[in-house]
């Protein structure tokens, strides 16, 4: 519709967001594109946040939805989300910083070795099998 020059109305955004959870890969792929298009047409429109009564700018809401598509089961949808995310320029700093904090910074934390975890008493591993039926009555 948009490619043919037709005006997209705001209810289309809500439908596109719902379609992000569709069973079909192609529907999710196109829904990501549509969410991105709507974020460029109506970036400053206010929309209801998904899990609260708070209002968000559409571009910030779309950014959050597209970020969530990085967890999609389809590599095509994930790649499309990454491609589109790179061209979202009006996203507020608070959303960008929150994404860095949650996504990237958790991966940058130093992972402890099993020996370090064992010293702290956090290791959960399989039994060695040395004590057969140790828990038998």
From TrEMBL:
InterPro entries assigned: ARM-like, ARM-type_fold
PANTHER family, sorted: INTEGRATOR COMPLEX SUBUNIT 4
Protein's UniProt name: Condensin complex subunit 1 C-terminal domain-containing protein
Species name: Ciona intestinalis (Transparent sea squirt)
